[in-house]
Design goal:
2 domains, 6 helices
């Protein structure tokens, strides 16, 4: 029996670790791409994968690649609810405590492709903790897809669109009315490469991370830097 080829393309350390610990040990010949430059037509054609899996890729995949390989991405919402950017942060900021991971076939319309699988995901903890938990769920979904080859089903319902968050939206709003909402704002941004929650005052920037919610306080780490153009004079 001919060995099937698979590609996992991801940019995040937690997914790379899960690939090395779990995914590459599945049946088949596995290839990892961690640099967008490597995602070329030449490389895809040389590998000839049955599937290309994109956990946490967050970049546009060219149509020419979508047309030559079955591409599968993983989105942390119950699609068609929450199509678009920053799904984790948009969910938490809306008060969600849990969600599902949707594995979908990629098309030239963002997050609109048919669904292979959906698996529950808790939104408890810091953002990076959630992403690590998600990476293991994705690994199980990948295993199920390559072993069962499910037929993806079209999304049902009216889409809800999320907008990708901008770095300035990490600023802590002045209208937070509870420790819980402030904690959510800080924790949902606490992950590798994400702009941390911050305040700016008197020429300094205060970036807040690793929050712990107590009964009547939040304990966190704070990184203080001088704003550009400011000095001690």
């Amino acid at each position: 029996m001919e060995t099937e080829n698979y590609i996992v393309a991801t940019l995040k350390s937690w997914n790379i670790k899960t690939y090395n610990d779990v995914i590459k040990h599945n049946p088949g010949s596995w290839h990892l791409i961690t640099d967008p430059v490597e995602l070329s037509m030449e490389k895809i054609k040389s590998i000839n994968p049955k599937y290309i899996f994109f956990p946490h890729w967050s970049l546009v995949v060219p149509d020419e690649i979508l047309n030559v390989a079955t591409c599968v991405c993983f989105h942390e919402t119950d699609l068609p609810y929450g199509r678009g950017g920053s799904p984790l942060q948009n969910l938490i900021s809306r008060g969600h405590k849990e969600t599902v991971v949707s594995a979908l076939k990629m098309t030239n319309e963002l997050d609109a492709g048919p669904i292979y699988l959906k698996t529950p995901l808790s939104l408890e903890g810091l953002a990076e903790e959630i992403f690590i938990r998600n990476s293991h769920i994705v690994a199980e979904m990948i295993k199920k897809i390559i072993t069962e080859n499910p037929t993806p089903k079209e999304q049902v319902g009216e889409p809800t669109i999320f907008k990708r968050r901008k770095p300035l939206e990490s600023r802590i709003p002045e209208d937070r009315d509870s420790l819980e909402s402030l904690f959510d704002h800080i924790r949902m941004l606490d992950a590798e490469s994400y702009p941390r929650a911050f305040l700016e005052r008197d020429g300094f920037r205060y970036e807040i991370s690793r929050p712990a919610l107590k009964t009547d306080e939040i304990i966190a780490e704070v990184r203080i830097t001088r704003l550009e153009g400011k000095n001690d004079d």
